[in-house]
Each structure stands twice: as structure tokens, then as C-alpha cells.
Design a protein that fits this description.
Layout: E1 24-28, E2 34-38, E3 47-50, E4 53-56, E5 78-83, E6 88-94, E7 100-103, E8 162-166, E9 172-176, E10 185-188, E11 191-194, E12 216-221, E13 226-232, E14 238-241, E15 306-310, E16 316-320, E17 329-332, E18 335-338, E19 361-365, E20 370-376, E21 382-385
Antiparallel strand pairs: 1-2, 3-4, 5-6, 6-7, 8-9, 10-11, 12-13, 13-14, 15-16, 17-18, 19-20, 20-21
Length: 446
């Protein structure tokens, strides 16, 4: 059956009853043939016909999938996805020149993005996560157990003052960098620095250790030209302190140094131990029970006046050398000398003995040419007094000679016994007991 209404006429079907649950429609082919078509078959790619109406979306996650890429052009209008009887706008797609997408939850609802997600990976648009207003909201970034959270393209901070830290429960916090520098470190002007700006800044709060292991730690100065202190690691570890220019190495207070120690073993720098000012300080040198304290390179003293002595408690004292010469000795002009400069100088304060044992003791004169007195030791000990030139041997006062005695038994020197002047002096010659003899040999004047 053909119904024609001409080229501009209408075909009108009047009085047709309403279909409360339509399922089919009449369609027309390209050759104007009318066909009946199921309405459910006209809903695809995101649409479904159900219970007499076309509906957006499918009833399952696999219903009416897109078969090709599609576009929804809202132009300058907005597209809202509402819920909760229209009270909540779950997603708002804004059109126009300032287009965008806003997703908003209500109640305990969440916004979930699953799979590889790109937010503003191109262009220059800003991206904001979380609420900048007042409120305790949480933004969670999870990278799994082995993944990475990457922050790329972050601008350099010319003067950083804060860092992001993470708590034991993975909560990110902002922390002042100055608060992260303690016990020997300071954060100042955008950088962590070793040491404080004053002698009381950032003190150690407990004992600490710096383990250089087998490496070295150098403290340099003067643009790196001087190594002021070098801490050497490894099996042969040590510390070397070196000055430059007029610099000095100063150690104040009780000081303990362990291990082989060298101080200024090369060069010409001075070394000072102890306080030269007023105060009772002690400098202790210990060489163990069998070691040696060696003082090398000490200059000769052309005119010494003092020596170092040691007390019973090992305290070193300075002593005047003149005070160490008594009882027949004198210290004068840098040397110890036998006898005094006068007949009352340095007298014996008690009886004393000189034990020459088997040796001899000679008193010489005239540049050593004359032996004025010779004290002979050994089993045949004796005393010989010999004059030279016009010298004489004079004994004044009561004189006692014990043992074989010879007086001028050779030579032509005159011998005088007794006083030739006025007086009642007595010269006694005893030959010994009743059997001794007195022998007078020649030259006796009549």
C-alpha cells in the first residue's frame, strides 16, 4: 500500500491511542518503505531502552559499550550529574571558554580513579588536590609497596626554609629546616653548615661519634691551601694539626693524647706546653716504668745558672746551681769548682770522707807540670807533697804524721823543724820505745 502526500504534503495518522509500554516504532527506509523496529534495538553505545523509555548508561558495566570514539559537545552549556534526589552534584561538566570538570562527593562517598591517570600532563593549567580552606581533610598518595611517588618539574628554591617530612603513619608534614639542625650543625641562609655561629650554639646533647673508617677527614683553611687538621683513618689512624703563617695550636684545660704523638718534629715552629701566666697548673710527662723522657736538640748554655730537679713525688723543680754547691764546692761562672774563693767560703758542716780506693788523687800546679800533692790509694797508700821552684811545704801547729815518713831524703832542699824565732817551742823526736834510734847523717854543723 502506498500513501503519497506529494512533495510538500503531510501524512497524518489521527486518533492513535497512547502506548503505555511502547516496544516498537515505525521507521522508513531510504526507498520510503515503512518498517517496524524494536525500540530496544535503537539504543546503543551508552544508551538503553528499557520499560518504555530511553535511558543514559547501561544496567551493567558491560552493557551498550561504545563501539567507536564519541564526543559529547556541551558547547557553552553545562552538564550536571546529580544524585541524592538532585541534592548533590556529583560531577559538573562546565562548557564555554572556561570549561572544566568538578567532581564532588557527599556523605561518605569517594572519588575513585583506577588505572593510569593523567592530570594536566600537557599545557600550563594548574592542578589542585585537596581543600585549601579550613578543615582537616586528607589527600592520600599511594605507590604500592615497591612503587615510587615522583614529583617532577619542581622549581629550585633559592632560599629554602622548609622541607616535607613523613611520620611513622605516613602522614606528610612541613618542617622548618632550621629545626632539623642540632648538635654541631646549623641551617642558615638556605644551607646546612657544620658548627655553630657562637661557642654556645647547637651543643652536643649526648656523646657522639664520627666514624671515618678507612677514609681521611681534612679541615682546610685559606682557600684550601692549608690543612689545619687531618684525621687519618684506617689501621694507622691519627690526627695531624698544622699551622700556617702566624697561626698557633692551642690546647687549654686537661689534655689527654693517646698513641704515638709528634709535635713540630719538622719545621721551625715553636711549641708551648702549659700556661705561662699566673696559676698552679700541672704538665705531666710519663714514660711508663722503664721508658725514657728524651729532651733532644737542647742548646748549650754558655753560662748555666739553674738546673731541673725532681722531687720524691716526681714534681720537676727549677733549682739554682749555686745552691747545689756546699761543703768544699762552689758554683761560679757556670761551673762547679773545688774549694771556696775565701778561707771561710763553703765550710764543711760535718766530718766528710774522700774514698779514692785503689786510685790516686793528684793536686797539680804550674799548668800540670808540678804535682804538689799526691794521695796514693791501694794497699800501699800514702801522701807525697812536693815543692817546685821556691815553694815550701809548711806545717803550722801541732803536727802528727803516722806511718813511714820521709822528708827530703833526696835532693838538696833544706828541712826546718821548729821555730827559729823567739819562743819556747819544743820539737820532740822519738825513736820509738826504748829500742828506737835517732840517726843524723852528715852535714851537721859543729
Amino acid at each position: 500500500m502506498t500513501l503519497n502526500a506529494g512533495t510538500t504534503g503531510n501524512i497524518v495518522l489521527g486518533g492513535v491511542d497512547a502506548d503505555a509500554a511502547p516496544t516498537e516504532i515505525l521507521t522508513i527506509t531510504a526507498t520510503n518503505e515503512v518498517r517496524r523496529s524494536s525500540m530496544s534495538g535503537t539504543a546503543l553505545e551508552g544508551l538503553v531502552f528499557s520499560a518504555g523509555a530511553y535511558r543514559l548508561g547501561g544496567t551493567t558495566n558491560v552493557a551498550n559499550p561504545f563501539l567507536t570514539s564519541r564526543f559529547v559537545n556541551i558547547d557553552a552549556s553545562n552538564l550536571s550529574f546529580t544524585s541524592n534526589g538532585g541534592a548533590s552534584t556529583t560531577m559538573l561538566v562546565t562548557g564555554g571558554a572556561n570549561s572544566g570538570v568538578a567532581m564532588t562527593t557527599a556523605g561518605t562517598g569517594t572519588i575513585g580513579l583506577t588505572g593510569t591517570t593523567n592530570v594536566n600532563t600537557t599545557g600550563t593549567a594548574n592542578s589542585t588536590l585537596g581543600n585549601t580552606g579550613v578543615g582537616a581533610t586528607t589527600v592520600t598518595l599511594n605507590a604500592g609497596t615497591t612503587g615510587n611517588i615522583v614529583l617532577g618539574g619542581v622549581d629550585a628554591d633559592a632560599a629554602p626554609t622548609e622541607i616535607l617530612t613523613i611520620t611513622a603513619t605516613n602522614e606528610v608534614r612541613r618542617s622548618s629546616m632550621s629545626g632539623t639542625a642540632l648538635e654541631g650543625l646549623v641551617f642558615s641562609a638556605g644551607a646546612y653548615r657544620l658548627g655553630g655561629t657562637t661557642n654556645v650554639a647547637n651543643p652536643f646533647l649526648t656523646n657522639r661519634f664520627v666514624n671515618i673508617d678507612a677514609s681521611n677527614l681534612s679541615f682546610t683553611s685559606n682557600g684550601g691551601a692549608s690543612t689545619t687538621m687531618l684525621v687519618t683513618g684506617g689501621a694507622n689512624s691519627g690526627v695531624a694539626m698544622t699551622t700556617a703563617g702566624t697561626g698557633t695550636i692551642t690546647m687549654t684545660g686537661p689534655t689527654s693524647v693517646t698513641g704515638a704523638t709528634t709535635i713540630n718534629t719538622t719545621g721551625t715552629a715553636n711549641t708551648t706546653l702549659g700556661n705561662t701566666g699566673v696559676g698552679a697548673t700541672t704538665v705531666t710527662l710519663n714514660a711508663g716504668t722503664t721508658g725514657n723522657i728524651v729532651l733532644g736538640g737542647v742548646d748549650a748554655d754558655a753560662a748555666p745558672t739553674e738546673i731541673l730537679t725532681i722531687t720524691a713525688t716526681n714534681e720537676v723543680r727549677r733549682s739554682s746551681m749555686s745552691g747545689t754547691a756546699l761543703e768544699g764546692l762552689v758554683f761560679s761562672a757556670g761551673a762547679y769548682r773545688l774549694g771556696g774563693t775565701t778561707n771561710v767560703a763553703n765550710p764543711f758542716l760535718t766530718s766528710r770522707f774522700v774514698n779514692i780506693d785503689a786510685s790516686n788523687l793528684s793536686f797539680t800546679s804550674n799548668g800540670g807540670a808540678s804535682t804538689t800533692m799526691l794521695v796514693t790509694g791501694g794497699a800501699n797508700s800514702g801522701v807525697a807533697m812536693t815543692t817546685a821552684g821556691t815553694g815550701t811545704i809548711t806545717m803550722t801547729g801541732p803536727t802528727s804524721v803516722t806511718g813511714a815518713a820521709t822528708i827530703n831524703t833526696t835532693g838538696t832542699a833544706a828541712t826546718t823543724l821548729g821555730n827559729t824565732g823567739a819562743g819556747g817551742a819544743t820539737v820532740t823526736l822519738n825513736g820509738g820505745g826504748t829500742t828506737g834510734t835517732h840517726t843524723v847523717l852528715g852535714g851537721v854543723a859543729a
